[in-house]
Design brief:
Helix content: 40-55%
Order of helices and strands: HHHHHHHHH
Number of strands: 0
Amino acid sequence: MTLTEREEISRGPAMGCSARVIAVSLGRSPSTISREIARNGGRSVYRAAAADQLAYQRARRPKPAKLAACPPLRAMVEDKLKSLWSPEQIAGWLRRHFPDDPAMRVSHEAIYLALFDPRRKAIDRTLTQRLRTGRPMRSPKRARRPDGRGVVRERVPISERPVEVESRQIAGHWESQ
């Protein structure tokens, strides 16, 4: 969203316009406008320049790792890794033991990233040896190359199949006859 659009949004509530009316004038979805207003203080407080600055701050990369920013969470995760817990088990345990505290939650993927990404200095990298695989490097998940299984060879499109196949197909599955 641009600063000009945000200025239009800030004029809307001042004139008593609804989010739907503002959205139509900007060619945006009403939910986008209402989220923008709510995220930046509400109808009575919304200011375009402040909203633009906050949006810029939220979009900045790289973001600090949650485990680096929250020492109690990092200590808990490190203790569980030392006790040979998997990152999946740790994430589930944290979710159950701290249901009302979002600061004490972390996904298993964030734990793996903290362990295997050398740029993140969130967790002691020697704890990778405590994982079940014990590998010091993690190979990223990527699309698997076809190895022949599940690949139909010499496919014949339906349009090119013989006529007798189509007549038998009415009675049932043509390959089973």
